[in-house]
Amino acid sequence: MFTSKSSDELKPLLAPIRKQLGLRVWIQQLTVYGLWGMGASLVLLLLARIWPIPFYQWIAVVLPVLVVITGLVRALWMRPTWLQCAQVADGNGLAQRVVTAWENQENQSMVAGMQREDALQHLRKNLLQIVESVRIWSLVQIKVYVTSSLLLVCLVLFLWPNPQDLRLAQMAEEKKAIAQVEEEVEAIKQDVKKNTDLTDAQKKQLEEMLEQAKKALAKADDQAERQNALRAAEKQLEKVRDTEQRKEKALQALQRSLGNQEGTKAVAGAMEAKDRQAMTEALAQMAKAMESMPQKEREEIAREFASAAEQLKKEAESADSKELEDIAKQLAEAAQQTAQGQVPQAMTALENSLMQAMTGIQQSQQAMLAAIHAAASLNQSQMTLASAGAQAGNAGASGAGAGTAATGQATPASGTPGNQPTAATPGTGTNPNQGANPANQPGNGNNGSGQGNGNGNGNGNGSGGQGSGQGGGAGLGKGKHELVTVPTDRIGGDNGPVDTVGGQLGSGPSQSQQSGNTQVSSGGTLPYEEVYGQYEQFARESMEKGSIPGDYQEIVKDYFSKIEP
Amino acid sequence: MAQQTLEDCLQRVELVRQEIGKVLVGQKEVVEQLLWAVFAGGHALLEGVPGLGKTLLVRTLSQAFELSFQRIQFTPDLMPTDITGTNILLVDEKGQQSFQFQHGPIFAHVVLADEINRATPKTQSALLEAMQERTVSAGGVTRPLPEPFFVLATQNPLEQEGTYPLPEAQMDRFLLKIDVPYPTEEELKMIVRQTTTSQVITVEKVASAEQIAEIQQAAREVLVADAVLDYAVKLLLATHPGEQAIASVNKYVRNGAGPRGVQSIVSLAKVRALLAGRYNLAYEDVTAVALPALRHRIFLNFEGEANGIRPDRVIMDILNELGTQKV
Fold first, then answer.
1. What is the value of ipTM here, to two decimals?
2. Cβ separation A87–B227 shorter than 8 A
3. pLDDT of residue A7
């Protein structure tokens, strides 16, 4: 008679099947996910050859690893159950004996006991065959081959140089340059804010312009748009500069007009010296003199005042300056009162107008300087952006990058030399030929208080085959200094490389620096021909890719043709 | 159920097979299916052309089982009382009259309803009621039929004139429908040799009614795994036309099998498993009994009938489709 038997024996018998099934699940998951991972990696590597994808190498390595880990986690999750093992056992001709026995483990009936015994008996007999029937290799064979092939292709793609790497490096450089430009614009804005010599209106106007430039820069999608944003801001700043320049000129004309007359010469001198005390004293003497002056002479002076007032009024209208208009009004009033013999009132009006004019000159100069400084910085930023692409991907190409910048917008100045800090006239920068002067001639715009403010957008070909440099085009340039090493025999001097900061030499102020021979030492490690070839090729590639704006391409070509070995 | 009992039962069934084999040549599958019906406690409908040994088979079966046997030849003029029996008026010696119930041929362990489709529906329903209830009510008295009780009905698929085909609901009462095939050439030779001599073959009684009941009880105890039961249910549901049905079902089937269909499948499959020496159902048991258990429960539509499609083909299509979804 059959006796009920414990079902404890079923699990140990199913254990080897479960182990084998578990192994199969692991290997299946590993190969399936490995296949997906390698496939994804391959697609990524191929796409990275069409479009620049940042960190694609890392992603291509990490992706399959992550996918495989996911597969292994899933394999843990999908660990075969005992029931599945029983089903596999039954699949080997056991006619659902094991599944039924597993489901009826707790069934204590006689039939259930006999069924379990029957199932165990059959399971014991066929266990080896069942375990062997759990095939692994044949199930994953194709997947393993495909995965291995994908791995091989990925390795080849990994080792084969990717042309998009260069573009990626450029993009990184551009990003860096944009961040730098944004910082610079913010710095200019802070400088304007801190400048106590500017009126609130001037500060507000400049800050608004810079803020606009910053926003436009942030919105810009590509290099050209960024350049345009900076150019637009630069133009606005130039307008401010021009306006202030006109104001200053008008007031200086008034000053000259007063200096031409004997009676007001002292007043003009005090005005020129910006000496308020001297101005007051000169006006007191003038008042005294006018009181003893015949009516005819007073009328003569009054006509001069009226003429100057009229001139100033015209300038005020054309410059749209309320400040100049006020000064002209007071001057006209002084003229009228002088003609009427009301000398004290006339002197008071004259003093007010001249004091205001004196302050106006100072403020215009400061605003002009600030605008020039900001414009120069923006100009420098444009060059930073333009050169960002050219500098990319070549750690040793700083010379080439600087070279590109040097052929940029060096600004010729044609204004009054800066040795007269009170009245340095800003250059207009309209004559590109002036930029062709050798950059190793020291500029003369940085004398005195350093207020020389030559500025412009002249196409300064600063190298002239003899030097290179980088400058914002401002006489008081704050541009970056980068060294370009060229052979001394090509520079035409014995002083080695030249780093030009500031505009090209015109009649306006500019600044140049000449480095000593000691700075050349690092350039001597490679033959010039070799270095030239690399840089020239790099520049050509950059032009082909459009990294260098069209305006600058001719300059770059010209530069390289001139320094050709 | 004890191990020894099972082995004893299996031996006894084997003896039955041998005894039947003495008389009936071939038709092993028919004999097997008939045994399933007996041990599952159901009734069987045998369909085949005349002369294939249907009646002989049933008679031999009853002889081998030591069971009472009655044959009823169904004709159009057969009355229900001719089957169930009736009260007759008796006059005793003293001249007193009383009614006495005259038992009809239904009161036997094995009833052979020969050519069941030749009787009128009224008569058919009298038999079918007895098959379902296993009792006969007459004269206000309900009388139980002997246990075990089997009705083994036959019908001829060829002659349809003057017949009354069994309604669908009544067909459903039969646990299975056995198709009796034409003998093979070899079997025919043996039949001729065996029946044209003066040799008399006697059938030994090798199993009693109690032993049949024991095997029936053992078959009911056979265990069924969930997956196998699921498979049987899926098989039944697949006979119904619908969105998930296979093409041939949707094309040819008007009505699929009712719930009795799956009961039949499992009951028969349990017997098959037991006769195979197993205590549990296997997929193969379900597939093996699917044809006899379902073929009379699937009703073809006009297109199916017109194209001469047989339910067996539809069931085979379903089995082929489900074959891949077993585990």
1. 0.86
2. yes
3. 54
